[in-house]
Amino acid sequence: MLSLTTGLAPLVLAGLLGWTGAVKLFSRSTTQQAPRTALARMLRSSERATTVLRATGAGELLVAAGLLVVPANPVPGAAAAVLGAGFLGYLGYGRAVAPESSCGCSASEDTPITWRAFARAAVVLIGGATVAVAQGTWWPVVAERPAGALVFLAGAAAVLVVLSADLDRWWLLPLRRTRLRVFGHPLLGTATDQVPVAASVELLENSLAWQAAAPVVRSALLDHWEDDGWRILQYSGVYGDRENARPVAVVFALDATAGRDTGDAPIVRVSYVDADSGEAVAVDELRAAPSRRILPMAG
Predict the structure, then answer these.
(1) CA 243, 246, 251: angle at the middle one, nearest 5?
(2) Per-residue model confidence as pLDDT tens digits over 129-175
(3) Nearest 5°: phi and psi at 165?
(4) Phi, psi at residue 187, to the nearest 5°?
(5) What is the mean pLDDT of residues 214-224?
(6) Burial class, 66, CB count within 10 angstroms (exposed 0-12 / middle 13-18 / buried 19+)
(7) Contacts of 213 (CB under 8 A, 6+ apart)
(8) Is the dihedral of CA 28, 33, 39, 42 positive or negative?
(9) How far apart are CA 261 and CA 53, in angstroms?
(10) φ/ψ of residue 148, rounded to 5
(11) Are 247 and 101 in contact (CB under 8 A)?
(12) How far apart are CA 100 and CA 87, in angstroms?
């Protein structure tokens, strides 16, 4: 197993860095995603963040090519280890200064920095160091043990998929939907007046409050809780223009007992909270028809 790990580490790293590098360098989503990243917050410029992301992507592709072509040379492995260390430093600083922003690791993630981003960066660091020290080639391992190599690569690919938040929509969300269909919603049956969170989210996404806040929201539901009869739904977002983008928490509140069968659409309150200071962001009061009232949350 150890020989498989050290022998095939260049292939695994090349696949990971080649994928993330190609997305950063060539994808149109890089420009769209840059303002939402912690990097834009650090550099105070979406344009500079885009440039750095594309340059990083080019570097990742070069390292991936080296790992594929000359894995026995310690330089590609050492370069991958340096990239991993740099990613860890960036993630740590980004998590401290802009916790609600995404990392931009694959230029398509729109969720805040989590342990999965740190774990993936650690894989790059440890894998690069392993390749640099081993100085071996991957093709003899594949030729001598094709079945074992296939199983190992499939397992490694599965781990990397789990560590990639932007791939959740391909496996995690369908898995959750299947679980709900098979076992039912965990909140159903616990109380006669309990409304599933999914029902509250559905009501919210059909409200004018959601339409008004949609340009700011940059994530799926991150957290929810109940307070004094209100159900609080929290999302992350980016507020302001591209030059002055600031990460915020977008917080909605609506009646915890409201559902599609409870009559009129509920009152929805919305608030933007600065991710760095924790203070409410001043916005113009949202107005709507009485049937779908939108009120600012009390500070």
Answers:
(1) 145
(2) 999 998 888 988 888 888 988 999 999 999 988 888 777 777 776 77
(3) -65, -30
(4) -85, -20
(5) 88
(6) buried
(7) 237, 250, 252, 270
(8) positive
(9) 47
(10) -60, -40
(11) yes
(12) 18
The Cα–Cα gap between 17 and 62 comes to 9
For 236, the 3-state DSSP assignment is strand
Are residues 166 and 104 in contact, defined by beta-carbon separation less than 8 angstroms? no
214's enclosing H/E stretch is none
Six token digits for residue 182: 């098979």
Within a 13 Å sphere around the CA of 163, how many CA atoms are in the beta-carbon half? 19
Nearest to 152 by CA among 291, 15, 296: 15
Tell me, yes or no, if the pTM score tops 0.90. no
Four-CA torsion 35, 235, 111, 114, nearest 10 degrees? 120
Q: Is 246 helix (H, G, I), strand (E, B) or coil?
A: strand
> What's the order of all strands across the beta sheet hosting 230-239?
223-227, 230-239, 246-255, 268-274, 294-296
